[in-house]
Design goal:
Four copies of one chain form a homotetramer.
Chain A: E1 5-6, E2 11-15, E3 22-28, H1 38-48, E4 65-67, E5 71-72, E6 75-76, E7 81-86, H2 108-115, H3 131-149, E8 152-160, E9 163-164, H4 186-199, E10 205-212, H5 226-235, E11 240-245, H6 256-259, E12 263-264, E13 267-268, E14 276-277, E15 280-281, E16 286-292, E17 302-305, E18 311-314, H7 328-351
Antiparallel strand pairs in A: 1-2, 2-3, 3-7, 4-7, 5-6, 8-9, 8-10, 10-16, 11-16, 12-13, 14-15, 17-18
Helix pairs in contact in A: 1-3, 1-7, 3-7, 5-7
């Protein structure tokens, strides 16, 4: 209720501060019998973790996750899964000067107003460091969705600041430090980031995520639509300021004849809807885009006030990502996995016995596993 | 849990189908002592209800709300508030031909796959008619927020299909059938809609909503950020495909120096954040934009399949809005009110005793009550 | 969250006051495809409703329930089921004298302290009249449990004031106004109640409820044990002051060798546990007992204070049950049904795919459908 | 949702198995500014922990709790509080022989049926060892309730098997290994336990808990009554089979004139209700009793079946409490604290602004801080 839990049936509850001893999470509601080891979760944690290239924060955290409960002899038992990652590379002295001043664009001022007390070291609870636990918990969801339902989730960087990145080669996504699906763009992205880093400024980004193989019927009508819960999940990621499903803001200027995805016995003829109709999955790919703001943790001084209400300047030292969007891809994937997992369980709770006899249609023509650009 | 409730402490639970006997809602958690009559809720219901102009559906529903409980001698008692609106103008025969075929772009197919059984009359539970109860329930929230905290919520149409609408005159919003804040644009909008209606097609729209006077400190960190819950609320409205907070997707190409809202002892110097920092309200105006798709209920035939899996054509007869975005303004206001109300209560549950001694900063220079365009 | 909802997946949300226009409830989460009519719910409502004999309150309420949504062509659709019962026999003038004084043993004082404002007519929201909606909602759960899982739920009066009632003839339960399973006791019960009514006093009662055919595996470990949720449900009924599962307080003086229910390939050899082990159903009958206090609504004057803090006397006029336990049997059945229904859905959400290959053991020797006395 | 969380606003989520590496809990929703150290929680953990006398299990666990988050510079920050206790004295080999057979009276069979897979070492998740985290989390609640509201919570053993224990000297409670409030009874209790231990059998117990200083107004009407949530909390403790509020099952034979607690300007004249009227605290002491069954972990062989469905005998080796009720007192206190804490926050969320001007009455004559026997 105080915002540290996500999901209704597959529930993730996180804790931990950027400069505290550890981050942790409890994952409750996981079905029993899922093969699971720590190594299974480490892959995505490594994709997210800092210090992987010169373009992200230089904080060195191995982000080794321990499973403390809920797994017995290599498989889940249905009991809550306790996860723990110890912080090892805190440098809290970096933050002492912002103890009494509010960095503009940060949560410093709002946390102070909300709680009256604030762990200012590295942003405390408001640090994006907490997203490590999202990735760990999301890894369990991803794994179950793949094993039980054949659902595959993939994200990529679709724009870095002013540079749009086309979806040309999904196999390239994990081969460059940007999660960019267009390898030909990578040199330009590196150049841009090097210049940005030198300038001391930061920049925004856009990330796309997609889930394929989602069966029709997931999502609840009215308030807990699949897309509403996805919007919730995505907007809860640090720095996200916009969420789109399917054509997103592009629908404003569309006509109904253009937008509605017609159906044939072979499948849907397009996917403007992003795989959700009336809040419920249609069997088409679920497609989501998010906008991430430029981090406010920059070396360039800004005007602000201190806890005494005086005008002061502030410079963020510490170690930060000049573009938080770069590391956001595995986080967005994890959040989409958590939503889908939760709705898989919610759906079968109410509708376990439903058998419509109607096939699950997907898009036609059949497209490559990672080729959303054609729709 | 099945999606018909919204909120954690100020909880709205709705029921009712488009062509059933009535729509209803239970509002639980309202603080006692709020003066409340049915007339107080009718104003917004009238703003939303169909048939107000030739540009919306011609279904004639008075949408008279009855308060069945929770109010005694003119004020709320703290008990749940039962609300009921009877349906009076159903014409279910209009829908018999779509009983066994799935209208493209509608929830027909997904509801069928989810539940195996479907009330096809007017879309049943998936009809936008349910939004009447959102507006009624949101009216209670709006009222409490204004009485207790001085919060004012206003929405407007900012784009109709290809026509952008500037924010020029807030006093005009309720004086035209589009909720357009630019009276000079109204003739163009009317002409556009007349042509659209004749064509049998539909179009999308963009709606903006704003809350002024929100105190700093509302919202929960991590998963239940104020903006995450707003995104959830907005994306749960029928036809919404995108949500932005503050600069929204505009942040992708922004620099950190540009985006971060600097503070002075007089207040914030800009409002790129949309009034939320780290998921918690900052005292700036909370600003939200949503994209609504063109309704798929159009007279132009489309390809689809029927319940036997055969290729068929379908035409939506019935009475429909050629642009659902037109009536969306009071709905978006209601959803923003519900989120803020819920977080007002959540905040004081945990932090009732917090007194920071720090003033609540708003934007400077002081702007007119409805002048968001300057930020 | 304000206490008017029950359940996590099969969720009942009620509203309405004793002397308001109507009582209502929304039942969300019911699986689709269940045959359901208003008549199906009326049977239990008639068992509970007042004025059925001279031993209960003489308020005349037909308690006719209307289904406003969620049912289409005779079966549930998965959409929320709106239920409404109109109040017809309010006599609010009976209550004007208790407007400013707190009846001892009632909720008058505590509601006043909680909310500052109070609907004093007939107890307002605190009246046991709200239990009509529990019975209506519980009727849906009972029906689903029987259709889908073969679960049968039955309750009876096991003690009236000082008179214990043995479980001799379950077929007699619905043939006397007390739900007493021993027809030979009925004349004594009638005589006792006639004398009690004349005295102007009231008395307590004990009610037993049992569910047979519950499959093993329902209930969640740790906090949401099946028995914990049953205790919650039962203690939430007006006037209940104690709850027992299985042998209840009898276990205090038992030895482990006596209490543990041994198992054989033919089944459990006893049922001291009341059908729950480690919070999870065992396949044995689920057995519950509750203690109901004597109503405080009596004609004999009592000392109290008024809203000005002065010492006053108060007499409850109105129309009341001299033993609220008499009408409690269908209410207790309904609450047990709601808990089991909720856990049936919760169980299959997480464990839909579990197949242990182990049979479900019940008690042996096989007993008559309503013969719990032997265990 | 899978049963490992308790509370709605002050939420405890636990994890960990008896023989896993650690037990943990996340406490979310704690108000900021509460002074808190690990030592503050250790006191109650030490009261609960095993091996304190020869009358409890001889497993040696220091039960040292670490606070991993949510506390900064000695006070709570409003962020979730991560708690961890490492298991140090597991002897899992003790359990290998029960790997494939279901101990009667245990959760072995029901967990197996629910999940299909089972961590059999020491009962896994079903072990009472998880109650350590309840005590740790409850310690935070106790502390806040005392600091902010002056609420004091105390429990004691009121019956051990056949031996009733009168409430004679509250100061003696923590001075004997039984939490017995009658020091004169202690030798008899020790003798009884020594004989019991020799016999290899186990016995039940009764524990009473009381909260003094609870303000009037806590608790929600209808389903989430304070007493309903208390019943839920208590019945969720391992081995509990019965819960009473106030006079409990004693009310069955009471008259209304006897039961109703009359009020005078000086206060309530009695406390039959146990401090709750209409589900809401009255200002009287909140009084609760629970019945704990004899543990089924005994050395005497019992009949059962194995996972192949064959008849077998089983003996529980391992190390166990011959009377789990002895260590239940701090657990029951913790659960009462969690319920009260949750309702304190829930109450102020909705009713923060209520000011009735009516004093909070308590019982008269004023009694000693720990003298419930007089009411």
């Amino acid at each position: 209720m105080s915002g540290n839990s996500f999901g209704k049936l597959f529930v993730v509850t996180g804790f931990g501060e950027s400069h505290g001893p550890a981050l942790g999470a409890v994952v409750d509601g996981c079905p029993p019998g899922l093969p699971l080891t720590e190594a299974d979760l480490q892959h995505d944690l490594d994709r997210r973790r800092p210090g992987q290239s010169r373009h992200t924060t230089q904080r060195r955290e191995p982000d080794r996750v321990r499973i403390l409960s809920g797994v017995f002899e290599g498989q889940t038992t249905g009991a809550p899964i306790g996860l723990l990652i110890e912080n090892v590379d805190q440098r809290s002295k970096d933050y002492s000067e912002i103890m009494d001043r509010f960095r503009p664009g940060h949560a410093d001022y709002t946390y102070h107003q909300k709680y009256g007390v604030r762990d200012y070291r590295g942003g405390g609870r408001s640090s994006a460091r907490e997203t490590a636990m999202r990735v760990a918990a999301g890894g369990i969801a991803k794994r179950y969705l793949r094993h039980r339902y054949g659902v595959e989730i993939r994200g990529w960087l679709s724009q870095l600041g002013p540079i749009p990145i086309e979806f040309r080669d999904p196999s390239a996504i994990d081969s460059n430090p940007f999660f960019a699906p267009d390898p030909a763009r990578v040199p330009e992205l590196e150049e841009y980031m090097d210049a940005l880093r030198k300038s001391g400024d930061s920049v925004g980004a856009r990330v796309d995520v997609e889930a394929r193989g989602v069966p029709p019927g997931w999502g609840e009508p009215i308030f807990d639509r699949l897309d509403a819960d996805i919007a919730h999940a995505m907007m809860s990621i640090n720095a996200v300021k916009g969420v789109e499903i399917g054509d997103g803001f592009g629908v404003v200027a569309q006509r109904g004849t253009e937008h509605r995805d017609e159906m044939t016995p072979e499948g849907f003829l397009s996917n403007h809807s992003g795989g959700v109709l009336g809040g419920i999955s249609s069997g088409q790919a679920v497609r989501v885009s998010i906008a991430l703001k430029p981090t406010s943790s920059i070396r360039l001084p800004g005007r602000t006030v201190n806890t005494s209400g005086e005008a002061v300047e502030v410079v963020t030292r510490g170690r930060h990502d000049p573009c938080v969007g770069i590391r956001a891809t595995p986080i967005a994937e994890a959040m989409l996995a958590l939503v889908l997992m939760d709705h898989a369980l919610r759906h079968r709770a109410q509708n376990a016995d439903v058998d419509t006899g109607i096939p699950a249609y997907a898009e036609v023509p059949a497209r490559g596993a990672m080729d959303p650009g054609e729709s």
